[in-house]
Amino acid sequence: MSSLKGRDLLSIADLTPEEMRTVLDLASDLKKGEKKFNSNKTLGLLFYKASTRTRVSFSVAMYQLGGNVIDLNPSRTQVGRGEPLEDTARVLDRYLDILAIRTFAQEDIETFADYSDIPIINALTDLEHPCQILADLQTIEESFGCLEGLTLTYLGDGNNVAHSLLLGGVLMGMNVRIASPEGYLPDENIVKQAQALAKKPEQVIVTQSAKEAAENAHVLYTDVWASMGQEEETAQRIPIFQPYQINQELVNLADDSAIILHCLPAYREKEITAEVMEGRQSRIWDEAENRMHAQKALMACLLGLG
Questions:
Q1: What is the dihedral of CA 218, 186, 278, 137, to 10 degrees?
Q2: Residue 129: active-site member
């Protein structure tokens, strides 16, 4: 745990496989009640985007660590009136023990990290969603007892979740397939980064064929077809993304033991059918719960608790 003390988590690739294993093992222990902490640390939440799971899971996690939470609503702080991020970062560094930021540009959280000594956590940017992927990996491991060698298939928009799944999955020895329509494929630089981290070329597959990606997969994963800030594009995206819907036909192509994941919120009968979402293979609600456990473990490690 000491190797993570004082560190930032801006990308899931900021963690080595060994460090990710430390976080996941601690998350499992915390979920089972086998380990507890009693800190007096203060977490700041600076969220420029709407949030349910991230906001609540971070808050409850910090309270369960024995700490405190301050909601730094941008509309009620000077940062919302144009105060330079560098100035806000240096001030918050004097007040807080750790800061989670949910914003648009990856460069903004990098600025906070550059001007702060406290740990900065990426609670979502347009480029990555690392905390979500920690919870995803925990959920997959709970279902299969391992991660290495499993095939994870993500279907839909090649967005921040797809990027972090690529990097995090490959780091933990998984095969990651991304199936997206033309024009919505994941960022080429992220794909190249994942390929560089992979031990074998077949660990990273990016395709436009949903059926090819789903075949014999152990995990089928999807997200909304239009992320926050893209809602006006929803109608025009529906026919483009329809072949990537996780429905029973697609599930039948996957491994018999396959599980279904969705980072939520979900729009039933668009990116996923209600039948699949509520079906026996769904682990979506376990995945949502694990946001709290994974983030609790992450914060404990970054704060050097225990």
A1: 50
A2: yes
